[in-house]
Amino acid sequence: MSNLFWLTDEQMNRLRPFFPKSHGRPRVDDRRVLSGIIFINRNGLRWCDAPKEYGPYKTLYNRWKRWSDIGIFARIMMGLASEGAEQTTLMIDATYLKAHRTASSLGGQKGGRGRLIGRTKGGMNTKLHAVTDALGRPIRFFMSAGQVSDYIGARAMLSSLPLAEWMIADRGYDADWFREALKDKGIRACIPGRRSRGKAIRYDKRRYKRRNRIEIMFGRLKDWRRVATRYDRCPKVFLSAIALAATVIFWL
After folding, report:
1. How far apart are CA 137 and CA 160, in angstroms?
2. What span, in angstroms and rounded, lies between the C-alpha atoms of 54 and 39?
3. Rounded CA gap, 128 and 99, in Å?
4. pLDDT tens digit string along 119-133?
5. CA 60, CA 37: separation in Å to the nearest integer?
6. Do 167 and 90 meet the contact criterion of CB atoms below 8 Å apart?
7. Per the UniProt record, which residue ranges are transmembrane (predicted)?
8. Mutual angle of helices 150-158 and 176-184, in 10-degree steps
9. CB neighbour burial string for 26-42, b if at least 16 within 10 angstroms, e if fewer
10. What is the 3-state secondary structure (H, E, C) of 5-40?
């Protein structure tokens, strides 16, 4: 099939340092298995629908689940981002990701506890909070239930922010505590004030126009069908799908 995805030798060389060590029997061909995992996630397929060129689908699923559980895909993204990010300016924002009914079945005692899925006006959603570099490439992710405020995501990612000169955000992040926290880290805020403020907040309007890059980033992530619609009940597995998409789109 001509539309199958295959990682190049150069891409594999960049990924290999982040792979866990193989204990016991050697792993099945990493390139074939990872290429199949990417193909499934990008196209939103069931694992049993994986093309035969990638080998047994159970091999793909087992590798995906095992590496997701130990955070390998998130580690790959953050590792590659730390090597190539343009961090003089950071941007922060959040977006909703629709939860499919297979992920959001909330009835009974098991109902969605710990799944990071919440009810919003648009239905059952997960919220993805992201920090990007100056070029709009993601360097940090935080996932929460859909009804959680942007402030919670900002607070969760604050301690892990890299050194930077500027932080660009929309007025949803206009809070005195956030501005002070950025100032304490030596980061200047480019955040317009809320209309409810009695005194207008001055900000660099020319610099603020760059914020569309993080919106573009979210749009490109949602081109991957397994990101745009959440099918996975386990938050760690779903976050791995997001990290994998970000790695392939922005860092390889």
Report:
1. 16
2. 9
3. 12
4. 888 889 999 999 999
5. 6
6. yes
7. none
8. 20
9. eeeebebbbbbbbbbbb
10. CCCCHHHHHHHHHHCCCCCCCCCCCHHHHHHHHHHH
Which residue in 115, 30, 42 sits closest to 72, CA to CA? 30
Q: Which tens digits make up the pLDDT trace of 200-230? A: 888 999 999 999 999 999 999 999 999 999 9
Place of tokens 């130990």: 70
Amino acid identity, residue 5? F
Nearest residue to 186 (alpha-carbon basis) of 86, 83, 78, 87:
87
Question: How does DSSP assign 54-66, residue by residue?
Answer: G--HHHHHHHHHH
What 3-state class would DSSP assign to 196? coil
**Per-domain boundaries in the chain:** 9-70, 86-232
| CATH T-level assignment (fold) for domain 86-232 | Nucleotidyltransferase; domain 5 (3.30.420)
What local confidence, expressed as pLDDT, does residue 113 receive?
Answer: 55
